[in-house]
Each structure stands twice: as structure tokens, then as C-alpha cells.
Design a protein that fits this description.
The chain is α/β, with parallel strands linked by helices. Helix content is 36%, strand content 22%. It contains 13 helices and 21 strands. The chain has helices spanning 44-62, 80-91, 105-112, 121-138, 140-157, 165-175, 177-184, 200-209, 271-277, 317-327, 358-369, 403-409, 411-421, and strands spanning 7-8, 11-12, 24-29, 39-43, 70-73, 95-98, 116-119, 190-193, 213-217, 227-228, 247-250, 255-259, 266-267, 278-279, 282-291, 297-302, 307-308, 314-315, 331-337, 344-350, 378-383.
């Protein structure tokens, strides 16, 4: 696999078992969040191109460091991004620490002291919530500084700075942020994040602490990556420019379509699905998004996840779910439903605290609805006792909700919810 990137003193080392760029290397199955999982056939050429791109971007991040990269990894290797990270680590002869017990993540991260590691948004959201909750409980001087500095940083991002903002940020950077950075990872150059949209507020939170979050966008079918943030030009809420050799454009319904040497060979034993995904040389991602004048991309949602009300309104649930999660940190997950119904409803699972009550959920939904058009407002909800987890089949290995599985599991409850509202 690494024939094109492993080099020794006498030049490239040979891999006699691998000869052509079109040779299949592996089959990685998609997560199946909105349908049946499909086997994605990836080739030697796909990986060779991807490792060249990731190597160049990591060189930018580490600014020509002479020591081997130190990497921490906790995600499963059924995730295409994990596979690319493993091969990148091998090709760069990095020091790679693997964690297989999420309950020991914090301790093992401190032992590994990595330069960077790959994340999914779920973990970063939890780290942020844990730090904020810890400071709230601690109270006193430190909590006051943090709160004022955080508000100052957000105002700076919105270009609404006040006269005292620079003081609070200077104070926090002097006595508070270094300790928080050290508790996460003393050598961290960046956190790399992919697999699902990351809340802008969370990206800004880590950026405020002095730890940039570099977003990566891609699918299994694109050998995990289409875009990568430039370490020296990160725009919160965007996922960076297309990697070298990749063409990206918007098709019908703002669907992102892609072509380049990293596009998969096809789905294993599924010729019809392959034909539907690959049209005239372009891979249809199923993701909706946009691009700015500088070529920086943003992702807004999945076409398959669109909720189409019986009024005809098409609604991407992901941005609304993210907004509600920010209003309601006591929740572990929120999933909107409403396909072919007259309004949106929410399924809410409780977090580890006991603060999730119907009254609290309703208050947050009311605040969330205040500035939204009527068709985007959430009109009903149900607190679901059972969280969506990998073990109960409602969550993928990298933290995405399996929407079809949730709808099937809770179909009767959802029907009752709408019947009570007369939908």
C-alpha cells in the first residue's frame, strides 16, 4: 500500500504484491446512517494520492519539525479517516499511540502527549461542555475571568469588540488558558475533526484556548478526504479548500459533486448503486454545501436527511439540531422528525446530568423557535429514555445517528406524538 510513499536510503522500497494504481487495496463499508451499508472499493492509486496530500498538509502544520510526529488515536479502523491516518503515520514513521478504552481516554491522552489527533465532533463537544461545567462549578475569580474572556472572544469574532475585551483576553491568556491547554494536551499543535459538521461555537472555543481545530470533509468514497483546512488560514464554520488534484462543484439542489484521483473504484458487487453515484466522471456526495470566493467550502446537510413537510418545505435538520443542542446542553442527542407531516418534532435523549425536564426542554425550544420561520419551528418533542448508542444500533462507530434505525425503533411513539397534536 505504501509503495509510493515509503522511501529508504536507496530510494523507494518495493512492494511486489502491489503493482498498479487500479489494484484494489481494501473494502470499507459505509456507516449506513440512512440506508444499507455499502462496500467501498479503494485502490492503491486512491491511497497514494491521499497520502501525498495529507503529508503535505501535516508538514505545513508541524513547520518542518525534525522529530517524528506524535499522534494519538481512539477512533475505530472501520472509519475511512482512521485508515488514512494509520497509513499517514506509517509513511511518516510517526509515533502512534492507540487507545481502545474510551473510559481511559483522558489519562491515555496525557501519556501520549500528541502533536495532533483525529476527532469526531461528539468528543470535542463533550470536552468543551466538561471544561465549561467544571469552571461554572468552581466559580469565583477563575470562572469570572473565563466567562468575560469567552464573551470578549465571541464579540471579536463578530467584529463587535468593546473597550475592555482586550484586557480580559490578555488576563485569560496569561493565567487560565495555558492550564486548560495543558490539561487537554501540552504539545498539541491542532485538533483535526471530521465525519460530521462541527458547531462553530465549539471550533471558536478551542481556537480561543489556542488550539486550532482543523476541519476535514470527505466520505469513504473519496478515500476519506475532499477538503482540508489550511493550518495558517482557518475560517470557523468552513472545512477548507479542496485538496490538490480534486475538483468540486455544486450540482442540483446544491449537492456537492467531486472528481479526482481519490474517488473510489465502485461499490462491491453493486453495479447499479455505483452507476448512480458516479455520473459522467463526477461522484455525487449526497451532501449539500456552498463555497466562498476563496474556494473555502462549508457543509450544510445531507440530501437524504432532508425533512419534507406536507406543506412542501424542504428542511435540513442538522443545523437546527445543532442549534437546539447549544440551547439544551443537558441533552445527549436531539433528532428532528417530520417527513410528510405538518410540522417538526424533536426526539431528545438525556445526558449524564439529571437536569433534563419537560419544562426545561420546552423553554429551550421556545427560545430556539423565536427567530425562525413557522415551518422551521419545533412544535412538539418527546424525551426518549434510551440514548442512541453503538450498542443498541442507533449510532454509528464514529458517532453519527442512524436516522432510519431511530425512526423504525420509535415509529409508534412518533405516531402518537403527532396524533396528539393533530398533525
Amino acid at each position: 500500500i505504501l509503495d509510493s510513499v515509503f522511501t529508504g536510503e536507496d530510494g523507494p522500497q518495493s512492494a511486489p504484491y502491489l503493482h498498479e494504481s487500479s489494484d484494489a487495496v481494501t473494502i470499507i463499508y459505509t456507516s449506513g446512517t440512512s440506508g444499507q451499508a455499502k462496500g467501498v472499493v479503494l485502490t492503491s492509486g486512491n491511497f497514494a494520492h491521499m497520502l501525498e496530500c495529507t503529508g503535505a498538509r501535516l508538514d505545513q502544520l508541524l513547520r518542518g519539525a525534525k522529530q517524528p510526529d506524535r499522534i494519538f488515536h481512539y477512533l475505530p479502523f472501520c472509519f475511512a479517516g482512521s485508515r488514512v491516518l494509520l497509513l499517514s503515520a506509517l509513511s511518516r514513521r510517526s509515533v502512534l499511540t492507540l487507545s481502545t478504552d474510551l473510559s481511559k481516554l483522558s489519562q491515555e491522552l496525557k501519556l501520549a502527549a500528541p502533536d495532533y489527533f483525529l476527532n469526531v465532533p461528539t468528543l470535542l463537544e463533550r470536552v468543551r461542555a466538561t471544561i465549561e461545567e467544571m469552571l461554572r462549578k468552581r466559580g469565583g475569580f477563575a470562572a469570572g475571568i473565563f466567562s468575560r474572556a469567552q464573551q470578549a472572544y465571541l464579540r471579536r469574532h463578530r467584529r463587535e469588540s468593546r473597550g475592555t475585551d482586550a484586557f480580559w483576553l490578555l488576563l485569560a491568556n496569561a493565567i487560565l488558558f495555558p492550564a486548560i491547554r495543558k490539561s487537554i494536551g501540552p504539545n498539541l499543535k491542532a485538533l483535526i475533526c471530521g465525519s460530521a459538521p462541527l458547531a462553530v461555537e465549539t471550533q471558536l472555543f478551542f481556537q480561543m484556548l489556542g488550539i486550532p481545530v482543523l476541519q476535514v470533509y470527505g466520505l469513504t468514497e473519496t478515500t476519506a478526504i475532499c477538503t482540508m483546512d489550511d493550518p495558517h488560514h482557518v475560517v470557523p464554520g468552513y472545512v477548507g479548500p479542496a485538496i490538490p488534484g480534486t475538483e468540486m462543484k455544486l450540482a442540483e439542489n446544491d449537492e456537492i459533486v467531486v472528481r479526482g484521483p481519490h474517488i473510489f473504484a465502485g461499490y462491491w458487487q453493486r453495479p447499479e448503486e455505483t452507476k448512480q453515484a458516479l455520473k459522467e466522471g463526477w461522484f455525487h456526495t449526497g451532501d449539500q454545501g456552498g463555497v466562498d470566493a476563496t474556494g473555502n467550502w462549508r457543509i450544510t446537510g445531507r440530501l437524504k436527511n432532508l425533512l419534507i413537510l406536507n406543506s412542501g418545505h424542504n428542511i435540513a435538520p442538522e443545523p437546527l439540531e445543532d442549534s437546539l443542542m447549544r440551547e439544551l446542553p443537558e441533552a445527549q442527542q436531539i433528532m428532528l422528525v417530520g417527513n410528510q407531516k405538518s410540522f417538526l418534532a424533536a426526539l431528545v435523549t438525556p445526558g449524564s446530568s439529571n437536569g433534563l425536564t419537560p419544562e426545561r426542554v420546552q423553554a429551550c425550544i421556545d427560545a430556539h423557535n423565536a427567530n425562525l420561520p413557522h415551518y422551521k419551528q419545533v412544535r412538539a418533542f418527546r424525551i426518549v429514555d434510551e440514548a442512541f448508542t453503538i450498542e443498541n444500533g442507533l449510532l454509528t462507530a464514529n458517532g453519527k445517528i442512524k436516522r432510519d434505525a431511530v425512526l423504525s425503533r420509535h415509529a409508534a411513539m412518533i405516531e402518537v406524538l403527532y396524533a396528539k397534536k393533530g398533525a
